[in-house]
Amino acid sequence: MEKKTTRRTGRDRHATPEAPAKQYNGRPYLDRRRKKDEDARPGRSYRAKGDDAVAPKGRSYRGKSDEAPKGRSYRAKSDEKAAPKGRGFRTKSEGTAPAAREFRKRPYGAKPAAGTRTAKAVKPETHADLEPVTGEEWVRLNRFIANSGICSRREADEYIQTGLITVNGEHVTTLGAKVRTTDDIRFNGQRLKGEKKVYLIMNKPKGYVTTMSDPHAEKTVMQLISVKECPQRVYPVGRLDKNTTGLLMFTNDGDMTERLTHPSNGARKIYHVTLDKKVTKAHFDAILRGIELEDGEIHADTLSYVDGDKQQLGIEIHSGRNRIVRRIFEHFGYEVTKLDRVYFAGLTKKALARGTWRFLTDVEVAKLKMGAF
Questions:
Q1: Rounded Cα–Cα distance for residues 199 and 369 (Å)
Q2: For a FRET experiment, which of 5, 10, 13, 345 has its CA 20 to 30 Å from that of 143?
Q3: How far apart are CA 20 and CA 26, in angstroms?
Q4: CA distance 254 to 151
Q5: CA-to-CA distance for 261 and 253, rounded, in angstroms?
Q6: Phi then psi for 152, rounded to 5 degrees?
Q7: What radius of gyration do the chain's Cα atoms show?
Q8: Is there a domain that residue 302 lies in?
C-alpha cells in the first residue's frame, strides 16, 4: 500500500529529528494558543482558566483571577478588590465606589437620588425677584409699558428714570424693577394696560393722512380700521404722505416699530413712481450714485424702469426721511404724479384692495421678529 504523504505546513516545517513537531491525534499541532501560563505572549488577550495567573499588560482581562489589570473596567465577580480609579463601579462588591464616579446601583432611566447633585445658584436680577409670586404674573416695568403700545422699551427706560411712571401711586425710578400685571401703572397720570400684540397692514388710499389724530385733517388712516374687529390701540409704522398710496403697517408693539423704522436695521421699501416726463440717463445714474439734498446726501439702493417706460420707475430705498422719494425727483425738476408703496419689510399688498386692511399671519409675524426684512 502506497504511503500517503501530507504537506508540511505550520510548525512541522521547522521540525528536526532532535525536536520533532508536536502531534495531536496523529496530526500536526497547529493551534497557536497555549495551555500553559508561561507560554502566553506579552501583548496578547489572556483567556485561559488559570486562577493564579495575571493577564498581560495592555489587554482586557476576562478570566477569573482576583486582580484586574490597571486602566481597565473591572467586571469580575470578586468581592475583595475595588474597581480601578476613574472607572464606573459595576460589580456586586459591597465595597465603596471610587470617588471619581457615582455609584450606579439604580434602575435604568430612574432619577438620581436626592442630594447627589448640587443645584446651581442663580443670582436674582432685582430685589423684586425675591418676592413671592402667588397666582400673578411678574414682568419688567419697561416691558409692561412697551406692551401698552405707547413707546418702545428704550423709551420706557427714559420715562422711568425721569419719574413719569407710578406704580400703585408711588414713583418708580429703578431700571429693571418688576411689577404685577394687576398693579395700577400710570404714565403722566394715565393708566396703562398690557395689551395683546397685534400686527396689521393696510392698502392706504389717496387723500388720507397718516396720523393718530389731526384736527385739521378731514380723513385719517385710523378711521379705516374697525374698532370692533381690532379693539387694541394700534399705531402706524412710519408715514406715508396724504397723496401717497400703498402698503402701511400698524401695530401696538413698540419694539417692533423701532426696529422697522430705524435706518440702521435696513428695512426694505420699494415704491412705484410715475413722473410727468421721461427720466434721462444722466439723472438715472446720478440718483444711483447719490445726490446732495438740504438735509444730507441720499441715494437709491436700486432703480429700474417699469416695463421699459421711462416715465415709470421702481425705486428701492431704506431712508425714512420725510417725503424723500418725491424730493429726489423734484431735485432734477420732475413732478411725481403718482407714488405707490408696493413693498415694506418683506410684506406686500397683494390681493388687498385699496382702503382695506388685514391682520398679519403667524408666518409673517415670525419673519418680522426674526429680522427677515
A1: 11
A2: 345
A3: 13
A4: 5
A5: 12
A6: -90, 175
A7: 42
A8: yes
Nearest partner of 143 among 187, 167, 191, 177, judged by Cα: 177
Q: What is the pLDDT of residues 339-362, one digit of tens each?
A: 999 999 999 998 899 999 999 999
**Domain residues for 205?**
199-251+354-368
E strand or H helix that includes residue 289 = helix 281-289
Per-residue pLDDT of 315-332, as tens digits, reads 998 887 888 999 999 999
Distance (Å, rounded) from C-alpha 349 to C-alpha 324? 21
Rounded distance between C-alpha atoms, residue 151 and residue 145, angstroms: 7
Q: Which three cell numbers stand for residue 353?
A: 384692495
Pairing of strands 336-344, 245-251: parallel
Chain position carrying cell 406686500: 348
Q: How far apart are CA 168 and CA 179, in angstroms?
A: 10
Q: Are residues 272 and 213 in the same domain?
A: no
pTM: predicted TM-score of the whole model, two decimal places: 0.53
**Helix, strand or coil, per DSSP, at residue 368:** helix
Question: Which residues are designated catalytic?
Answer: 241
Q: What is the number of other CB atoms lying within 10 angstroms of the CB of residue 233?
A: 15
Q: DSSP H helical segments within 93-226, as ranges?
A: 141-147, 153-161
CA-CA distances (angstroms) from residue 89 to 84, 102, 203?
8, 8, 71
> What single DSSP character describes residue 351?
T
Tell me if 16 is assigned to some domain: no
Q: Length of the chain in residues, anyone?
A: 373
Measured in Å, how far apart are the chain's first and last C-alpha atoms?
A: 99
